[in-house]
Write a structure and sequence with these properties.
The structure is a single chain. With 522 residues, the chain is mainly alpha-helical. It folds into 2 domains: 255 residues, no CATH class; 242 residues, no CATH class. It is 80% helix and 0% strand. The protein starts with a helix and ends with a helix.
Protein backbone atom coordinates (compact mmCIF):
# COMPACT_ATOMS: atom_id res chain seq x y z
CA UNK A 1 0.00 0.00 0.00
CA UNK A 2 1.49 3.32 -1.08
CA UNK A 3 1.63 6.25 1.24
CA UNK A 4 -0.78 8.21 -0.96
CA UNK A 5 -3.49 5.62 -0.22
CA UNK A 6 -3.19 6.34 3.48
CA UNK A 7 -3.15 10.10 2.87
CA UNK A 8 -6.25 9.79 0.67
CA UNK A 9 -8.05 7.83 3.36
CA UNK A 10 -7.25 10.43 6.06
CA UNK A 11 -8.35 13.27 3.79
CA UNK A 12 -11.66 11.55 3.06
CA UNK A 13 -12.25 10.90 6.76
CA UNK A 14 -11.70 14.56 7.61
CA UNK A 15 -13.72 15.85 4.65
CA UNK A 16 -16.78 13.88 5.78
CA UNK A 17 -16.86 15.60 9.17
CA UNK A 18 -19.25 18.56 9.50
CA UNK A 19 -16.64 20.61 11.39
CA UNK A 20 -14.47 20.73 8.27
CA UNK A 21 -17.23 22.70 6.54
CA UNK A 22 -18.51 24.74 9.45
CA UNK A 23 -15.18 26.44 10.13
CA UNK A 24 -15.07 27.72 6.55
CA UNK A 25 -18.13 29.80 7.36
CA UNK A 26 -17.73 30.61 11.05
CA UNK A 27 -14.14 31.86 11.02
CA UNK A 28 -14.63 34.43 8.20
CA UNK A 29 -17.85 35.49 9.94
CA UNK A 30 -15.87 35.93 13.16
CA UNK A 31 -13.29 38.06 11.33
CA UNK A 32 -16.05 40.25 9.94
CA UNK A 33 -17.62 40.57 13.38
CA UNK A 34 -14.33 41.77 14.87
CA UNK A 35 -14.16 44.81 12.60
CA UNK A 36 -17.77 45.94 13.05
CA UNK A 37 -16.98 48.16 16.09
CA UNK A 38 -14.22 49.69 13.99
CA UNK A 39 -16.51 50.28 11.02
CA UNK A 40 -19.39 51.85 12.93
CA UNK A 41 -17.21 54.51 14.52
CA UNK A 42 -18.13 57.95 13.26
CA UNK A 43 -14.51 58.93 12.72
CA UNK A 44 -13.76 55.87 10.57
CA UNK A 45 -15.60 57.16 7.51
CA UNK A 46 -13.95 60.57 7.81
CA UNK A 47 -10.48 59.09 7.39
CA UNK A 48 -8.56 58.66 4.19
CA UNK A 49 -9.14 55.29 2.42
CA UNK A 50 -5.48 54.39 2.96
CA UNK A 51 -5.87 54.82 6.73
CA UNK A 52 -9.03 52.72 6.64
CA UNK A 53 -7.24 49.93 4.78
CA UNK A 54 -4.31 49.90 7.21
CA UNK A 55 -6.68 49.74 10.20
CA UNK A 56 -8.62 46.79 8.79
CA UNK A 57 -5.42 44.99 7.84
CA UNK A 58 -3.97 45.46 11.32
CA UNK A 59 -7.04 43.89 12.99
CA UNK A 60 -7.51 41.00 10.57
CA UNK A 61 -3.82 40.15 10.30
CA UNK A 62 -3.42 39.68 14.06
CA UNK A 63 -6.61 37.61 14.37
CA UNK A 64 -5.74 35.18 11.57
CA UNK A 65 -2.10 34.90 12.63
CA UNK A 66 -3.13 34.02 16.22
CA UNK A 67 -5.42 31.29 14.84
CA UNK A 68 -2.53 29.89 12.78
CA UNK A 69 -0.33 29.90 15.90
CA UNK A 70 -2.83 27.69 17.74
CA UNK A 71 -3.56 25.34 14.83
CA UNK A 72 -1.34 22.70 16.42
CA UNK A 73 -4.18 21.55 18.67
CA UNK A 74 -5.64 19.81 15.59
CA UNK A 75 -2.68 17.40 15.40
CA UNK A 76 -1.78 17.32 19.10
CA UNK A 77 -3.80 14.17 19.83
CA UNK A 78 -3.76 12.26 16.53
CA UNK A 79 -0.95 9.77 17.35
CA UNK A 80 -1.48 9.65 21.11
CA UNK A 81 -5.14 8.69 20.62
CA UNK A 82 -4.01 5.69 18.55
CA UNK A 83 -1.59 4.74 21.31
CA UNK A 84 -4.25 4.90 23.99
CA UNK A 85 -6.57 2.74 21.89
CA UNK A 86 -3.72 0.27 21.20
CA UNK A 87 -4.35 0.52 17.43
CA UNK A 88 -1.06 2.09 16.38
CA UNK A 89 0.61 -1.28 15.88
CA UNK A 90 -2.11 -2.33 13.43
CA UNK A 91 -0.99 0.38 11.01
CA UNK A 92 2.51 -1.05 10.91
CA UNK A 93 1.28 -4.54 10.06
CA UNK A 94 1.05 -3.11 6.54
CA UNK A 95 4.01 -1.80 4.55
CA UNK A 96 3.48 1.73 5.85
CA UNK A 97 6.53 3.57 7.17
CA UNK A 98 6.52 6.09 10.04
CA UNK A 99 6.88 8.92 7.53
CA UNK A 100 3.81 7.73 5.61
CA UNK A 101 1.72 7.54 8.80
CA UNK A 102 2.81 11.05 9.79
CA UNK A 103 2.06 12.36 6.29
CA UNK A 104 -1.46 10.95 6.42
CA UNK A 105 -2.13 12.38 9.86
CA UNK A 106 -0.63 15.75 8.91
CA UNK A 107 -2.62 16.12 5.69
CA UNK A 108 -5.83 14.78 7.21
CA UNK A 109 -5.83 16.84 10.42
CA UNK A 110 -4.62 20.02 8.72
CA UNK A 111 -7.30 19.96 6.00
CA UNK A 112 -9.70 22.07 8.09
CA UNK A 113 -7.01 24.62 8.96
CA UNK A 114 -5.73 24.93 5.39
CA UNK A 115 -9.23 25.30 3.93
CA UNK A 116 -10.11 27.95 6.52
CA UNK A 117 -6.93 29.90 5.76
CA UNK A 118 -7.61 29.74 2.02
CA UNK A 119 -11.09 31.17 2.63
CA UNK A 120 -9.73 34.05 4.74
CA UNK A 121 -6.83 35.04 2.46
CA UNK A 122 -9.04 36.76 -0.17
CA UNK A 123 -10.72 38.70 2.64
CA UNK A 124 -7.40 40.40 3.39
CA UNK A 125 -7.27 41.81 -0.15
CA UNK A 126 -10.04 44.27 0.80
CA UNK A 127 -7.54 46.57 2.61
CA UNK A 128 -5.42 46.50 -0.56
CA UNK A 129 -8.40 47.80 -2.57
CA UNK A 130 -8.94 50.59 -0.04
CA UNK A 131 -5.29 51.56 -0.24
CA UNK A 132 -2.54 51.89 2.32
CA UNK A 133 -1.63 48.18 2.11
CA UNK A 134 0.76 47.13 -0.62
CA UNK A 135 1.28 43.76 -2.21
CA UNK A 136 4.52 43.32 -0.25
CA UNK A 137 2.69 43.55 3.09
CA UNK A 138 0.02 41.07 1.98
CA UNK A 139 2.63 38.61 0.68
CA UNK A 140 4.72 38.87 3.86
CA UNK A 141 1.66 38.32 6.04
CA UNK A 142 0.36 35.39 3.95
CA UNK A 143 3.72 33.60 3.96
CA UNK A 144 4.12 34.21 7.69
CA UNK A 145 0.67 32.77 8.44
CA UNK A 146 1.21 29.72 6.23
CA UNK A 147 4.62 28.97 7.76
CA UNK A 148 3.38 29.57 11.31
CA UNK A 149 0.53 27.12 10.70
CA UNK A 150 2.93 24.50 9.30
CA UNK A 151 5.21 24.92 12.32
CA UNK A 152 2.31 24.66 14.76
CA UNK A 153 0.93 21.52 13.09
CA UNK A 154 4.41 19.94 13.09
CA UNK A 155 4.95 20.74 16.78
CA UNK A 156 1.54 19.22 17.54
CA UNK A 157 2.54 16.00 15.78
CA UNK A 158 5.82 15.92 17.68
CA UNK A 159 4.11 16.23 21.06
CA UNK A 160 1.55 13.64 19.99
CA UNK A 161 4.41 11.12 19.69
CA UNK A 162 6.26 12.25 22.82
CA UNK A 163 3.26 12.24 25.20
CA UNK A 164 0.24 10.00 25.66
CA UNK A 165 -2.61 11.83 27.34
CA UNK A 166 -4.57 14.45 25.37
CA UNK A 167 -4.30 17.27 27.98
CA UNK A 168 -0.52 16.87 28.13
CA UNK A 169 -0.27 16.97 24.33
CA UNK A 170 -2.47 20.08 24.03
CA UNK A 171 -0.70 21.94 26.84
CA UNK A 172 2.71 20.98 25.46
CA UNK A 173 1.84 22.21 21.98
CA UNK A 174 0.32 25.49 23.15
CA UNK A 175 3.17 26.05 25.61
CA UNK A 176 5.84 25.44 22.96
CA UNK A 177 4.21 27.79 20.45
CA UNK A 178 3.66 30.45 23.13
CA UNK A 179 7.30 30.13 24.15
CA UNK A 180 8.47 30.56 20.56
CA UNK A 181 6.16 33.53 19.96
CA UNK A 182 6.60 35.38 23.27
CA UNK A 183 9.61 33.88 25.04
CA UNK A 184 12.19 34.29 22.28
CA UNK A 185 11.57 38.05 21.85
CA UNK A 186 12.21 38.37 25.60
CA UNK A 187 15.48 36.45 25.22
CA UNK A 188 16.47 38.70 22.31
CA UNK A 189 15.77 41.77 24.42
CA UNK A 190 17.82 40.25 27.25
CA UNK A 191 20.77 39.79 24.89
CA UNK A 192 20.53 43.41 23.79
CA UNK A 193 20.24 44.66 27.39
CA UNK A 194 23.34 42.67 28.34
CA UNK A 195 25.31 44.28 25.53
CA UNK A 196 25.53 41.11 23.45
CA UNK A 197 26.23 41.06 19.72
CA UNK A 198 23.50 42.29 17.43
CA UNK A 199 23.70 39.21 15.20
CA UNK A 200 22.92 36.96 18.18
CA UNK A 201 19.82 38.97 19.10
CA UNK A 202 18.59 38.87 15.51
CA UNK A 203 19.33 35.14 15.24
CA UNK A 204 17.23 34.44 18.34
CA UNK A 205 14.46 36.67 17.04
CA UNK A 206 14.45 34.92 13.65
CA UNK A 207 13.23 31.71 15.31
CA UNK A 208 10.14 33.44 16.72
CA UNK A 209 6.99 33.24 14.53
CA UNK A 210 6.03 36.79 15.54
CA UNK A 211 8.92 38.18 13.47
CA UNK A 212 7.09 37.58 10.19
CA UNK A 213 4.05 39.46 11.49
CA UNK A 214 6.23 42.39 12.53
CA UNK A 215 7.91 42.48 9.12
CA UNK A 216 4.53 42.64 7.38
CA UNK A 217 3.52 45.57 9.60
CA UNK A 218 6.84 47.33 8.98
CA UNK A 219 6.32 47.08 5.24
CA UNK A 220 3.11 49.12 5.68
CA UNK A 221 5.28 52.11 6.56
CA UNK A 222 8.34 51.47 4.40
CA UNK A 223 6.56 50.14 1.30
CA UNK A 224 9.20 47.49 0.62
CA UNK A 225 9.77 43.93 1.78
CA UNK A 226 12.59 43.30 4.25
CA UNK A 227 14.99 40.64 2.85
CA UNK A 228 15.31 39.27 6.36
CA UNK A 229 11.84 37.74 5.85
CA UNK A 230 13.24 34.98 3.66
CA UNK A 231 15.86 34.03 6.23
CA UNK A 232 13.18 34.00 8.93
CA UNK A 233 10.86 31.79 6.86
CA UNK A 234 13.73 29.41 6.08
CA UNK A 235 14.57 29.06 9.77
CA UNK A 236 10.94 28.34 10.68
CA UNK A 237 10.67 25.86 7.81
CA UNK A 238 13.76 24.03 9.01
CA UNK A 239 12.40 24.00 12.55
CA UNK A 240 9.15 22.50 11.26
CA UNK A 241 10.97 19.69 9.48
CA UNK A 242 13.07 19.11 12.62
CA UNK A 243 9.85 18.61 14.59
CA UNK A 244 8.52 16.23 11.91
CA UNK A 245 11.80 14.31 11.89
CA UNK A 246 11.68 13.96 15.67
CA UNK A 247 8.09 12.71 15.40
CA UNK A 248 9.09 10.16 12.72
CA UNK A 249 12.00 8.83 14.80
CA UNK A 250 9.82 8.60 17.87
CA UNK A 251 6.95 6.96 15.97
CA UNK A 252 9.30 4.25 14.70
CA UNK A 253 9.88 3.20 18.33
CA UNK A 254 6.68 3.77 20.28
CA UNK A 255 4.50 1.37 18.28
CA UNK A 256 6.63 -1.54 19.54
CA UNK A 257 6.15 -0.63 23.19
CA UNK A 258 3.83 -2.57 25.43
CA UNK A 259 0.53 -1.48 27.00
CA UNK A 260 0.66 1.87 28.74
CA UNK A 261 0.19 2.19 32.45
CA UNK A 262 -2.75 4.27 33.58
CA UNK A 263 -1.78 7.89 33.96
CA UNK A 264 1.60 7.40 32.28
CA UNK A 265 2.54 10.52 30.33
CA UNK A 266 5.79 9.25 28.76
CA UNK A 267 6.73 5.76 27.63
CA UNK A 268 10.06 3.96 27.85
CA UNK A 269 12.17 2.30 30.52
CA UNK A 270 13.97 5.56 31.32
CA UNK A 271 10.69 7.01 32.61
CA UNK A 272 9.83 4.23 35.05
CA UNK A 273 11.40 6.08 37.97
CA UNK A 274 9.24 9.11 37.21
CA UNK A 275 6.12 6.94 37.10
CA UNK A 276 6.98 5.45 40.49
CA UNK A 277 7.80 8.78 42.12
CA UNK A 278 4.72 10.66 40.93
CA UNK A 279 2.28 8.22 42.62
CA UNK A 280 1.66 8.97 46.28
CA UNK A 281 2.14 5.70 48.16
CA UNK A 282 1.25 6.93 51.66
CA UNK A 283 -0.86 4.03 53.06
CA UNK A 284 -2.65 6.14 55.68
CA UNK A 285 -3.75 8.79 53.20
CA UNK A 286 -4.65 6.12 50.66
CA UNK A 287 -6.82 4.18 53.12
CA UNK A 288 -8.61 7.34 54.28
CA UNK A 289 -9.50 8.51 50.78
CA UNK A 290 -10.44 5.05 49.52
CA UNK A 291 -12.92 4.68 52.37
CA UNK A 292 -14.35 8.18 51.91
CA UNK A 293 -14.08 8.98 48.18
CA UNK A 294 -12.18 6.46 46.02
CA UNK A 295 -12.38 8.49 42.81
CA UNK A 296 -10.85 11.50 44.56
CA UNK A 297 -7.87 9.32 45.42
CA UNK A 298 -7.65 8.11 41.83
CA UNK A 299 -7.19 11.69 40.62
CA UNK A 300 -5.19 13.16 43.51
CA UNK A 301 -2.78 10.29 44.08
CA UNK A 302 -0.46 11.73 41.44
CA UNK A 303 1.93 14.26 42.92
CA UNK A 304 2.18 16.04 39.59
CA UNK A 305 -1.57 16.73 39.56
CA UNK A 306 -1.35 18.69 42.82
CA UNK A 307 1.95 20.44 42.07
CA UNK A 308 1.17 21.29 38.43
CA UNK A 309 -0.88 24.47 39.03
CA UNK A 310 1.58 25.83 41.59
CA UNK A 311 4.62 25.14 39.42
CA UNK A 312 2.90 26.61 36.38
CA UNK A 313 1.88 29.79 38.20
CA UNK A 314 5.35 30.30 39.67
CA UNK A 315 7.11 29.62 36.35
CA UNK A 316 4.79 31.84 34.34
CA UNK A 317 5.02 34.54 36.99
CA UNK A 318 8.82 34.59 36.86
CA UNK A 319 8.89 34.66 33.04
CA UNK A 320 6.18 37.32 32.83
CA UNK A 321 7.90 39.52 35.40
CA UNK A 322 11.21 39.20 33.57
CA UNK A 323 9.60 40.03 30.24
CA UNK A 324 7.77 43.07 31.60
CA UNK A 325 10.96 44.35 33.19
CA UNK A 326 12.87 43.99 29.93
CA UNK A 327 10.33 45.78 27.77
CA UNK A 328 10.14 48.53 30.42
CA UNK A 329 6.39 48.82 30.60
CA UNK A 330 4.68 51.17 33.04
CA UNK A 331 4.45 49.60 36.51
CA UNK A 332 0.68 49.70 36.81
CA UNK A 333 0.16 48.31 33.31
CA UNK A 334 2.72 45.60 34.00
CA UNK A 335 0.94 44.51 37.19
CA UNK A 336 -2.38 44.31 35.35
CA UNK A 337 -0.94 42.30 32.44
CA UNK A 338 0.94 40.03 34.86
CA UNK A 339 -2.20 39.18 36.84
CA UNK A 340 -4.35 38.66 33.73
CA UNK A 341 -1.80 36.21 32.28
CA UNK A 342 -1.84 34.17 35.49
CA UNK A 343 -5.66 34.08 35.48
CA UNK A 344 -5.83 32.94 31.86
CA UNK A 345 -3.21 30.25 32.47
CA UNK A 346 -5.07 28.78 35.45
CA UNK A 347 -8.40 28.80 33.58
CA UNK A 348 -6.89 27.06 30.57
CA UNK A 349 -5.27 24.49 32.85
CA UNK A 350 -8.59 23.71 34.53
CA UNK A 351 -10.38 23.56 31.17
CA UNK A 352 -7.82 21.13 29.78
CA UNK A 353 -7.63 18.88 32.84
CA UNK A 354 -11.31 18.77 33.83
CA UNK A 355 -12.56 16.24 31.21
CA UNK A 356 -9.48 14.02 31.35
CA UNK A 357 -10.13 11.40 34.03
CA UNK A 358 -13.87 11.19 33.39
CA UNK A 359 -13.30 10.60 29.69
CA UNK A 360 -10.60 8.00 30.38
CA UNK A 361 -12.86 6.11 32.81
CA UNK A 362 -15.63 6.18 30.23
CA UNK A 363 -13.35 4.89 27.46
CA UNK A 364 -12.01 2.08 29.65
CA UNK A 365 -15.46 0.98 30.82
CA UNK A 366 -14.96 2.00 34.45
CA UNK A 367 -17.99 4.30 34.41
CA UNK A 368 -20.29 1.46 33.37
CA UNK A 369 -18.94 -0.69 36.20
CA UNK A 370 -19.43 2.08 38.74
CA UNK A 371 -22.99 2.62 37.51
CA UNK A 372 -24.07 -0.76 38.95
CA UNK A 373 -22.45 -0.11 42.36
CA UNK A 374 -23.98 1.85 45.27
CA UNK A 375 -21.72 4.76 44.33
CA UNK A 376 -23.37 5.17 40.92
CA UNK A 377 -22.53 7.61 38.17
CA UNK A 378 -23.77 10.48 40.34
CA UNK A 379 -21.23 9.65 43.02
CA UNK A 380 -18.51 9.41 40.38
CA UNK A 381 -18.97 12.90 38.95
CA UNK A 382 -19.47 14.45 42.37
CA UNK A 383 -16.19 12.94 43.55
CA UNK A 384 -14.54 14.12 40.35
CA UNK A 385 -15.64 17.69 41.15
CA UNK A 386 -14.33 17.25 44.69
CA UNK A 387 -10.96 16.14 43.28
CA UNK A 388 -10.81 19.20 41.01
CA UNK A 389 -11.51 21.42 44.02
CA UNK A 390 -8.77 19.69 46.00
CA UNK A 391 -6.25 20.27 43.20
CA UNK A 392 -7.18 23.77 42.00
CA UNK A 393 -9.04 25.25 44.98
CA UNK A 394 -6.01 26.58 46.84
CA UNK A 395 -4.27 27.96 43.70
CA UNK A 396 -7.48 29.83 42.84
CA UNK A 397 -7.75 31.22 46.39
CA UNK A 398 -4.09 32.23 46.33
CA UNK A 399 -4.48 33.98 42.99
CA UNK A 400 -7.62 35.73 44.24
CA UNK A 401 -5.68 37.04 47.24
CA UNK A 402 -2.99 38.30 44.87
CA UNK A 403 -5.66 40.00 42.74
CA UNK A 404 -7.19 41.75 45.73
CA UNK A 405 -3.73 42.93 46.77
CA UNK A 406 -3.04 44.30 43.27
CA UNK A 407 -6.45 46.01 43.27
CA UNK A 408 -5.78 47.62 46.65
CA UNK A 409 -2.44 48.94 45.41
CA UNK A 410 -3.68 50.17 42.02
CA UNK A 411 -6.73 52.01 43.34
CA UNK A 412 -4.43 54.23 45.39
CA UNK A 413 -2.41 55.22 42.32
CA UNK A 414 -3.83 58.24 40.47
CA UNK A 415 -4.99 57.94 36.84
CA UNK A 416 -5.12 54.11 36.87
CA UNK A 417 -8.60 53.57 38.32
CA UNK A 418 -9.68 51.69 35.17
CA UNK A 419 -6.78 49.25 35.54
CA UNK A 420 -7.81 48.64 39.15
CA UNK A 421 -11.33 47.88 37.94
CA UNK A 422 -9.97 45.42 35.37
CA UNK A 423 -7.99 43.58 38.05
CA UNK A 424 -11.02 43.46 40.35
CA UNK A 425 -13.21 42.15 37.52
CA UNK A 426 -10.65 39.44 36.69
CA UNK A 427 -10.53 38.47 40.39
CA UNK A 428 -14.32 38.12 40.49
CA UNK A 429 -14.46 35.99 37.36
CA UNK A 430 -11.57 33.70 38.35
CA UNK A 431 -13.55 31.43 40.74
CA UNK A 432 -16.72 31.68 38.64
CA UNK A 433 -15.00 30.64 35.41
CA UNK A 434 -13.08 27.90 37.22
CA UNK A 435 -16.26 26.39 38.67
CA UNK A 436 -17.97 26.61 35.29
CA UNK A 437 -15.03 24.96 33.54
CA UNK A 438 -15.04 22.15 36.12
CA UNK A 439 -18.75 21.45 35.65
CA UNK A 440 -18.57 21.73 31.87
CA UNK A 441 -15.46 19.58 31.67
CA UNK A 442 -17.04 16.85 33.78
CA UNK A 443 -20.18 16.75 31.65
CA UNK A 444 -18.38 17.04 28.31
CA UNK A 445 -15.99 14.27 29.36
CA UNK A 446 -19.05 12.01 29.70
CA UNK A 447 -20.84 13.22 26.55
CA UNK A 448 -18.23 14.05 23.88
CA UNK A 449 -16.77 11.58 21.43
CA UNK A 450 -13.17 12.68 21.95
CA UNK A 451 -11.23 14.29 24.76
CA UNK A 452 -9.92 17.04 22.49
CA UNK A 453 -13.48 17.94 21.49
CA UNK A 454 -14.47 18.22 25.15
CA UNK A 455 -11.49 20.49 25.89
CA UNK A 456 -12.16 22.83 22.95
CA UNK A 457 -15.90 23.08 23.68
CA UNK A 458 -15.32 23.90 27.34
CA UNK A 459 -12.68 26.55 26.67
CA UNK A 460 -14.71 28.04 23.82
CA UNK A 461 -17.93 28.39 25.84
CA UNK A 462 -16.27 29.96 28.89
CA UNK A 463 -13.33 31.95 27.51
CA UNK A 464 -14.36 32.86 23.93
CA UNK A 465 -18.15 33.12 23.83
CA UNK A 466 -18.42 35.97 26.42
CA UNK A 467 -16.08 38.18 24.39
CA UNK A 468 -18.00 37.50 21.20
CA UNK A 469 -21.29 38.43 22.88
CA UNK A 470 -19.62 41.50 24.37
CA UNK A 471 -18.61 42.72 20.91
CA UNK A 472 -22.16 42.20 19.62
CA UNK A 473 -23.67 44.19 22.50
CA UNK A 474 -21.12 46.98 22.08
CA UNK A 475 -21.89 47.18 18.36
CA UNK A 476 -25.63 47.40 19.02
CA UNK A 477 -25.25 50.11 21.66
CA UNK A 478 -22.89 52.11 19.45
CA UNK A 479 -25.35 51.94 16.56
CA UNK A 480 -28.05 53.15 18.93
CA UNK A 481 -26.03 56.25 19.75
CA UNK A 482 -25.10 55.23 23.31
CA UNK A 483 -21.84 56.75 24.55
CA UNK A 484 -19.72 54.02 26.12
CA UNK A 485 -17.53 55.13 29.00
CA UNK A 486 -15.26 53.00 31.17
CA UNK A 487 -17.83 52.27 33.87
CA UNK A 488 -20.47 51.16 31.36
CA UNK A 489 -18.01 48.86 29.60
CA UNK A 490 -17.06 47.24 32.92
CA UNK A 491 -20.73 46.77 33.80
CA UNK A 492 -21.39 45.16 30.41
CA UNK A 493 -18.45 42.78 30.83
CA UNK A 494 -19.67 41.84 34.32
CA UNK A 495 -23.26 41.21 33.24
CA UNK A 496 -22.37 39.25 30.10
CA UNK A 497 -19.74 37.17 31.90
CA UNK A 498 -22.10 36.33 34.76
CA UNK A 499 -24.87 35.42 32.32
CA UNK A 500 -22.64 33.10 30.30
CA UNK A 501 -21.18 31.45 33.41
CA UNK A 502 -24.61 30.96 34.95
CA UNK A 503 -26.08 29.54 31.74
CA UNK A 504 -23.14 27.20 31.08
CA UNK A 505 -22.85 26.02 34.69
CA UNK A 506 -26.63 25.55 34.99
CA UNK A 507 -26.76 23.57 31.75
CA UNK A 508 -23.84 21.38 32.84
CA UNK A 509 -25.35 20.78 36.31
CA UNK A 510 -28.75 19.93 34.89
CA UNK A 511 -27.19 17.57 32.36
CA UNK A 512 -25.12 15.85 35.05
CA UNK A 513 -28.08 15.36 37.39
CA UNK A 514 -30.50 14.13 34.73
CA UNK A 515 -28.49 12.60 31.87
CA UNK A 516 -25.18 11.43 33.38
CA UNK A 517 -26.18 7.76 33.51
CA UNK A 518 -27.46 7.89 29.94
CA UNK A 519 -24.25 9.54 28.69
CA UNK A 520 -22.09 7.04 30.55
CA UNK A 521 -23.85 4.12 28.87
CA UNK A 522 -23.54 5.58 25.36
Amino acid sequence: MGWWVWVHRELLTTARRPAAWRWRFFFPALCLGLILPYLIQEGFWKRQPSDQGRGLFFIWAQCVWAACLGAGVLTADCISSERRAQTLGLLFLTDLKPGAVLAGKLFGKSLTAIATLMVVLPLLTLPMLLGGVGLSSWVAWSLSCAQTMFLSLSVGLMFSTLLVQAPSCVLGTLGAMAGLAMGLPVVSSLVQEAGGPEWLARAVLSVSPVTGLEISFQSLRSGWLDPWLWWHLGVLHGLSWLALGTAALRLGRIWREGPLARGQDMAGASRIWWQRWRIDRNPVRRRRWLDKAPFVWRVCRYRGSVLEPWLGLVGLGVLSGLGLCLIRKDGSVGVCVFFLMLCVFLKVLVGVRAPHFVFQDRQQGAVELVAVTPLGVTGLWKQHLLALFKIYGFPVLGLMALGLLCWAVLKEVPYVEELASVVLLATIFLPLDTITLGLLGTWLGLACRSELQAILWGLGLVLVLPWFLFWIVVEGLTLGGVVLDGDLIMDLMLVIGLAVDEAAAGWAWKSLTSRAAEAAAS
